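ok trying again, last paste got cut off:
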Amino acid sequence: MTARPTRRAPRHLLVAAFVLAYLAAGGVVLALGQRVAGGGWLALHLVLLGAATNAIVVWSEYFAAALLRAPPASERVALVRALVLNLGIVAVLAGIHSGRSGLAAAGACLAGVVVLGHALGLAGRIARALPARLSGTVWFYVAAAAALLAGMGLGLWLAGGAAGSADGHRALRLAHVHLNVLGWVGLAVVGTQFTLWPTVLRTRMVPRLEQAVRWSLPPLAGGLAVYAAGLAIALVPFLRTALRRPPHTAAAFMLGAGMVWFTFAVLADLVALAAAAQVVDLDGQLPRLVPVVVAGFALQTLTGALTYLLPVVFGRGAWGNRRLTGILELGWPLRVAAVNLGVVALVVGLPPPVGWWLAGLGLGSFLPLAVAALLAATRRS
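nice, full thing came through this time. structure:
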């Protein structure tokens, strides 16, 4: 899936800058703690709405073009799309955080138009493309975009205070969270892992991978009650690939650990749902899963993917790829251990500062390395 960087580098450089900026901003907000009103909400959305959304939109287009053997969007279209998307995201974050619902609604419309256009473009490519192996994974991105659009709508509804009763508010928040985490981020990650995982492990795709793609999407798109079944189907080739070629690089360990935490979060969510007297009671259990979803799954998966993909796009050949990978993998065993030990500490109930500092150090150390790698790549070009 390596592409000629002379055509794709500008869009990826811009989006990489956006992703790193959102991650840095989220880290600063968390570090400031109580000094930022609503800091927990803001940090969470800087990561999931800001960083994750940028990465999903640009990389899903990248993978879809490669899988369908179709030309990518023009550089001008991609750059305009990235700018409009981030203008919308910033307006949503600023509007909701400051209580300006009109600004938030305008931002949601801008971001929503970009995501809708992105999804329609992917669906159109599928319709026009010749049959190709694993082209069905592109439908994961289309379904993920539909989930995000629905989740954004519910988020605006919540921000506007139109939920009515307390139970109505909790039900809307539950739907909002699950659509965005399991739908937008979860579907995009699972769909990508079908091809990215064997690529990162540098091994062949296992037999019957196409069946896993085809059979896993319907239950994954069907809601929490059947989500675990779809995830189990998708994990079969994931595990078989890992047994064939065990993880041995920073990217592989982070992607693998991210999938482990995602599976844990889905199962814990189901257990909590089964134990709840009524569905809305699940809302009270969600804060316990925030460290797992944000640090263990989303941020670790994003860091692992960028550790592999940035050298592919900006390395400009085998030597450059090795050079950038060397920068991004600096001290990776300690960083990966810190992230996952931090999440474990938070899950088992140790004092939160211990877990968050460990996870924050492990994840935050990637930011200067990524900046150094991008600067090295741009100087060489």
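cool. Residues 5-380 form a domain with the Cytochrome C Oxidase; Chain A fold (CATH 1.20.210.10). The two ends are 21 Å apart (CA to CA).
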